[in-house]
Design brief:
By secondary structure, the chain is an alpha+beta fold. It has six helices and eleven strands.
Length: 217
């Protein structure tokens, strides 16, 4: 996982001279900490603390960053693990993409609830989770894309100056051999509808702590 725990673990191990593969299921590293407004006890903004670490991870010679990817299978034993990593299809050639943002600007699907903003804001079908994302390159959400829904549109492909959009892209399985595995899973919030005694899921003004953080931001 590429939240603050995974980021710091990767940096510590890489700085000790070992090679690291950092696997994150979302399009960007940063995790929940990137969603926070201020952090205790200094009241620094989370981005002030996180962004330098995120950039260091992306540029570190001992770290291979695999975002929008998930561990599919692990076999073997300590010192000799075999790991299968699924690189999910982003429908964007992220090696060619410069992150110019033109595809996001022109995408006609603009009313998809943003996961980063906990559903309080909207995003497009092709998107980066937040402006400081690392890598700052978009992925295409097939589930909400007009092209995949209706077989027409293709605006992002038309406006991309480097022909980065590839609607035929498929998931790719990468197999790696590693000596040790650090599990930094992060967390999910307890469903707000399960606290009905407080009006969770009933009243729109009853919000989760992360929704409140996004409001503060």
């Amino acid at each position: 996982g590429g939240g603050i725990a995974g980021i710091q673990a990767a940096l510590d191990i890489a700085n000790a001279g070992h090679e690291v593969i950092l696997v994150e299921k979302d399009p960007s590293i940063g995790g929940h900490m990137a969603q926070l407004s201020e952090t205790f006890p200094t009241l620094d903004c989370s981005q002030c603390i996180m962004t330098p670490k995120m950039v260091e991870v992306a540029q570190h010679p001992n770290i291979r960053l695999m975002t929008y990817s998930e561990v599919d299978d692990v076999s073997g034993y300590v010192g000799n693990f075999k790991v299968k990593i699924r690189k999910k299809a982003s429908y964007v050639d992220r090696d060619k993409c410069t992150g110019c943002g033109l595809c996001m600007e022109k995408c006609p699907s603009k009313k998809i609830p943003s996961e980063f903003d906990e559903g309080l804001g909207m995003r497009t079908a092709i998107y980066t989770p937040f402006p400081q994302a690392v890598p700052n390159k978009p992925v295409l959400d097939r589930e909400h894309c007009i092209y995949f829904e209706r077989g027409k549109c293709g605006v992002c492909a038309k406006v991309c100056p480097l022909d980065c959009i590839d609607y035929e892209q498929e998931d790719e399985i990468v197999e790696e051999e590693v000596g040790a595995i650090v599990v930094a899973t992060g967390y999910d919030l307890y469903p707000i509808v399960n606290v009905g005694e407080y009006g969770g899921g009933k009243y729109p003004d009853v919000v989760t702590s992360l929704q409140f953080e996004r409001m503060l931001s």
